[in-house]
Amino acid sequence: MSEAIDTFWSFRSPYSYLAIPELQQLRQDYDVNIKLRVVLPLAVRAKATVFDPANMKPALYIAMDSKRRSEFLEMP
Predict the structure, then answer these.
(1) Where would I find the H helices in 1-76?
(2) 3-state DSSP assignment of residue 34
(3) Distance between CA 33 and CA 55 in Å, rounded?
């Protein structure tokens, strides 16, 4: 019987999208089931200050970091 991996997933998160190849590789290499557990997007579940127009640093960091990660993984 295969083990299961719970994966907390947001359809709006660039990090969830970027995790797809690694999840597929885990499933293939170790014969595990990937269980997606959908969560609310950060914009809905976080405090209003996360995307405060007066402080765009968190949003800019997410954009910059996900771009860097996608380049590393050679993903669009």
Answers:
(1) 14-18, 20-30, 42-45, 57-73
(2) strand
(3) 40
Instruction: Name the token pair of 29.
Output: 């290499």
Confidence check: pLDDT of 44 > 80? no
Is residue 59 within 8 A of residue 52, CB to CB? The reply is no
Model confidence at 42: pLDDT above 90: no
Lookup: tokens for 42: 């950060």
Which residues, other chains included, contact 59 with Cβ-Cβ below 8 Å and sequence gap of 6+? 50, 51
60 closest CA partner among 70, 72, 51: 51
* One-letter identity of residue 39: V
- What distance in Å separates the CA atoms of residue 38 and residue 57, rounded to the nearest whole number? 26
Count Cβ neighbours within 10 Å for each residue of 40-58 and write b for 16 or more, e otherwise: eebeeeeeeeeeeeeeeee
